[in-house]
Structures are given as structure tokens and as C-alpha cells.
Amino acid sequence: MSIAPKGLIVPLITPFHEDESIDFQAYEEVIDFQIESGIHGLLVGGTTGEYHVMSLEERKSLIKAGCKYAAGRVPVMAGVGGPTAQETIELANYAAECGVRWGLVLPPYYHQTSEEGIRDFYKEIAEKSDIGIVIYNYPGATNVCLSPELIYELSQEENIVSVKESADFGHFCQVLALTKDVENFTVFTGEEPFILPSLSIGGQGAFGILINLLPKEMVELYELVVEKSDLQAARELNQKLSGIYGLMEAEGNPYPGPVKAGLDLVGIKGGKVRKPLTQPTDDIKLRIKEELTKLGYKVKEQDKSVIPS
């Protein structure tokens, strides 16, 4: 049985070359940056990683590379969801062979099914997968909202170990209340503005696009709440970060363009997004640059990189 994840997990971006092939050297550098900054785990090939514009072979190559570059320093989660249970199980078991510990799975969407269909989908995947399954509830992207009661029911399955909640905060609270006594099941938020409140009421972890860009600050926020119980200091840090939270999704949700632009600014290759996504605008780049300056970063105009002051 897989142990449930906890802590701060970064949904990694995927750097691309100009021809839109995966830049694995830059990917390794991104992973090193995250681990050296204290992140508790990596999510490879998730939404922020642009899995939806990749072939199956590319998704597999990204999973394999992510495990290789992590080299056991932190646990790895992989986006393994597909339109059918069979495809999801195949990718989940490939990920297990690579060393992945958990698989993140969206519910069926587009041709939307019943709650019974969703239940059976997750149960089949959990039963036949060699890694722990993490439910991904993201109605803003899928137009499918899993009820708190359904998530509670699925939490009883031995190999379903967590949920990533990207619904509204009220929904998060209901899920947390229903599952609080379930052994080996954790509840994560997937939204930066909810990280502080969700951790303060008992959430066990968080994802967030911004973690790619500001891992040290986000780890500090987590530690202030969970390890030090210093809510005053956590509130002060959260207020400093609040200006950049909204910029991560200012041009679309989900959309990795702004965080990639921010990484380019701090001297770590974020690079372009893959078509049909369009590149972030000059306006969003300027606004991110302004927020980084407020956080104590200075821009070197000659090479457009940013270093901490």
C-alpha cells in the first residue's frame, strides 16, 4: 500500500526548445532548483507541465527523466490520467517502473458520465495500478465537480491515497471534514490563495503553479504554518506574495505561460509554451517583473535576468 503524500509538491513546468521539443537539460536544472530550495515532492507531467499537448511517448519520456533527475532526493508524483481507465492504468504502471510513487488522475470529462461511472473509473484504476492514486478535482478545467461525498467514498479504497482540490474553498473544507478520520488519506489544495487557509485548518499539503518560480518563499510559508505554528508571520509572508498569486493565471486557467516567463526572469529557463497555447504577453511579463522587484529581486537589464537583492 502506498503511503499518502504530504507537504509542498511543485507541479513542474516542462521547458521546450524553439522547435517545441522537450529541453531535458533545462528540465534537469528546473528539478535541481526545486529540490535545492526545499520542495517536498515533484509532480511531473501535470497540467502545468503541458501534458495535454504531448504524445504518450513524450509523457513517458518526461516521467522517466523526472525520476532520473530527482534521483531519490524527493518523491515523485506523475500525471497519468487518460480518457479511459485502461490507458490510465498502463501509464500508471509504466510510471511505477520508473520509480514514481503516486499518480494524479482527473475524472472522465468531455463525454461526461454519471457519478457511478466516475466511481467505477477510479476504483478500477486503483485496483490495477502499482502506485498510489491521487484524485484530481478540477471543475474549472473539466466542468466536472466531484461531490465531497463521492471523494469520501473513494477515500475508503486502499490504493486511493489523496485528493488535489482545485474547487472552491468551501468544497475543500467539506472534503477535509468528511475525510479527517480516514487512515492514509490526505487533502491538498491546488490554488495558491488557499494554501495558507487550507494548511491552517488541517490540510496536509499543497500544489501551486507559483512554486515553480518562488519555491523558497512557498516552502517558508508552509513551514511557518505547519512546523512553527506562526500564523502571524505566515500572514505577513502571504500578503507579500498575494500580488503575484493572481498573475499566474491572469491570462488563462490553467496556463503555464506567466510562470515560465517568471522563470526566464530569474535566470532559469522556463521558455515558450507549446501550441495551441499562445505566449504570455509583454504586459504580463512586466507585471511579474514588478512583483519580483517588490519581493526583493533586482533585474539585470543587460541580460534580462533577475537576482535576489
Automatic annotation (TrEMBL):
One of its GO terms (cellular component) is cytoplasm. Its EC number is 4.3.3.7. The keyword Nuclease does not apply. The record marks T47, Y110 as: Part of a proton relay during catalysis. It comes from the Bacteria. It holds the Pfam family DHDPS. InterPro entries: Aldolase_TIM, DapA, DapA-like. Gene3D superfamilies: Aldolase class I (3.20.20.70). The active site is at Y136, K164. Signal peptide: none annotated. Pathway: Amino-acid biosynthesis; L-lysine biosynthesis via DAP pathway; (S)-tetrahydrodipicolinate from L-aspartate: step 3/4. Pyruvate binds at T48. It is an enzyme of class 4 (lyase). It is found in: Cytoplasm. Belongs to the DapA family. Homotetramer; dimer of dimers. Catalyzes the condensation of (S)-aspartate-beta-semialdehyde [(S)-ASA] and pyruvate to 4-hydroxy-tetrahydrodipicolinate (HTPA). This is 4-hydroxy-tetrahydrodipicolinate synthase. The gene is dapA.
